[in-house]
Every structure is written in C-alpha cells, then in structure tokens.
C-alpha cells in the first residue's frame, strides 16, 4: 500500500492502472497454474467446480502471450509492477515466516489486524468452519 500511495502521489492515475492491471493478470495466471498443478498432484481432493483441463490450458496459452507482449512493449511498467509485488516479501517474512517473534511484535501485528478488520468490516472466521474439516 505504501508503494502504491507513493506512486499515486508522484505519477498519474493512468500509469497506476497499468501497474495494477499487470499485477492482476500475473496473479490470474499463477492462480490458473496452481489449478493445473493441483489437478495433477492431488486429483482425488474434493472440488465444488471441476472443468475440463483444456479450458485452463488454453487460458494459460493466451495469458503467456499477453504477458510476454506486455513485458516486451512496456518493460518499465511491468518492472514497476513486479517491484510493487516484491514489496510484500518483507511483510511475508515478518508476519508469516518468522515464527518466534517477540511478544511486542505479536501484539503489534494483532492490533493492526484488529484495526484492519474494523476498518473493512471483516469478521474473523469462527471455529468449526469448513476449512478445518
């Protein structure tokens, strides 16, 4: 969010939309790749919706073409989009990967989570959800 705010203050909105659209399509493609990998590695797990693999493979072919074309035609925009994505790496290491955090860091993360939930009207899932089963 901080990188996006800085870019919004420095650049124009059209450029920010280009950065975000590249990030969105990159994430869509990675998600579809994950679908194919899970269908291959774990074919027996329950799926509420199951489609023919030809559809995601076709989507990935078009996705790869568009992504390569974007990288070729606008490398700066794509590079800045990748930098925006990479700003999440420190957040991952601080929040998820680092297991033995001091109590003050845990309290800070919990208070930020609570604040974010109140701001976005989000309720933490209750015990006994479908994910735990």
UniProtKB/TrEMBL annotation:
Keyword Transmembrane helix carried by entry: yes
Transmembrane domains' residue ranges: 16-39, 51-73, 79-98
Keyword Transmembrane set for record: yes
Recorded superkingdom: Eukaryota
GO molecular function: L-amino acid transmembrane transporter activity; neutral L-amino acid transmembrane transporter activity
One example of a Gene Ontology biological process annotation: D-alanine transmembrane transport
Record keywords, A-Z: Membrane, Transmembrane, Transmembrane helix
Record-given protein name: AAA1 protein
Organism of provenance: Notiomystis cincta
């Amino acid at each position: 969010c901080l990188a996006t705010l800085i870019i919004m203050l420095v650049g124009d909105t059209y450029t920010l939309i280009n950065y975000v659209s590249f990030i969105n399509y990159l994430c869509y493609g990675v998600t579809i790749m994950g679908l194919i990998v899970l269908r291959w590695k774990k074919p027996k797990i329950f799926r509420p919706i199951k489609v023919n693999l030809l559809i995601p493979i076709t989507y990935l072919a078009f996705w790869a073409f568009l992504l390569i074309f974007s990288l070729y035609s606008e490398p700066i925009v794509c590079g800045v989009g990748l930098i925006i994505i990479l700003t999440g790496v420190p957040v991952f290491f601080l929040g998820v990967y680092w297991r033995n955090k001091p109590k003050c860091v845990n309290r800070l993360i919990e208070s930020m989570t609570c604040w974010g939930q109140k701001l976005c009207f989000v309720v933490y899932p209750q015990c006994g959800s479908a994910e735990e089963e």
